[in-house]
Design a protein that fits this description.
By secondary structure, the protein is of the alpha/beta class. About 40% of the residues lie in helices and about 15% in strands.
Length: about 325
Amino acid sequence: MNRICSLFGIQYPIIQAGMVWCSGWRLASAVSNAGGLGLIGAGSMHPEVLREHIRKCEAATDKPFGVNVMLMAPNIAEIIAMLCEEKVAFVTLGAGNPVPHIPAFHAAGIKVIPVVPNVKLAKRIEAAGADAMVIEGMEAGGHIGKQTTMALMENVLPQIKSVPVLVAGGISDGRALAAALLMGAAGVQMGSRFLLTEECPANPAAKEAIVKATDTDSVATGYSRNLGVRCLANAFTDTYTAREIAGAPKEELMAMGTGTNRKGIVEGDIVNGTVMCGQSLNVLNDILPCKDVMERIIAEAKEAIANIQKIEL
C-alpha cells in the first residue's frame, strides 16, 4: 500500500496545500471527504478563528485533516499550544525551523510534515523524526525556493528512505502525480488545482484569472532579495519588479507586497493585488467540486501509469 495512504488511512496520496485566505474548513473537509488530505491554512487566522475552523472541519468530515503552520508567526507558541489541545491529525510546517517543534506535536499525537527546499534540511528533518516531508519546487505558487521540482526529486528522493516524501510545485494534474510516483515519491501536494474548486472561497475574479492564464503568465517577484513569490503577472508585479531591478531595499519591497495577497485573492483586485498560483497553468482551466477534481486526477494518473507500462526501453 502507498506509504502516505497507509500512514493516514486515506484513499489517495494527495495533500491539499495550505493556501492563505483560501484554505478554510469547507475546502479542507471537501478534500478529505474526496479521499485526500485536506489542510486548513493558518497563515491568515487568529488562534480562536483557527480553532473554529478546526471544529467545523471535524463536524464536516470523519476523515483526517491537518493545519498548515507558518513558524515565523509572532504568536507561534500560542498557535502550537492550541493545535495540541485540538489534536488535529497532522501539521505541515513552513517558514521557519521545524525541528524544535516536532517533539511537542508528537507528544500530542499529531503527525508532523515539514515543507523543505533542499537535501540538507531534508536530512535534518528525517533525523529529527518527522512523519513525512514535502519537497516544494520553485514552480509552486506563493513563496518559493531555489530549486525546480524535478531537481528536488533528483536530489532529495534518493537520499531520504525512512520517511515518505511528497512532491509539490507545478503539480496540477494526474500525469504529474504519476511522474512523482515514478520518481519515487509517496505522493503529492497540490495547491492551485484545489484553488479552482467550488469549495474554495477565493474571489471568483481571481479564479477566473487563473482559468484564463497561459503558461507564460506567472512571474516570480522578489527573487533577488530572497523574497521569491510566484503569482500571476499584472500591473502590481510590473511595478514591483521595476523597483527590484532598480535596487530598492528589501524593506521597501516587503512593504510593497504587504496586503497584496488579500487584495487579490479575497477582494478580487487582479490588477493591483497578487493572485498566487503555480506555473503549470494550461491544465488549470475549470472550476469543479473537489470530488470531481480528485476523481479526474486519479483517472489521469492511472492512464499515465498504464501508458508507461507499455513503453519498452
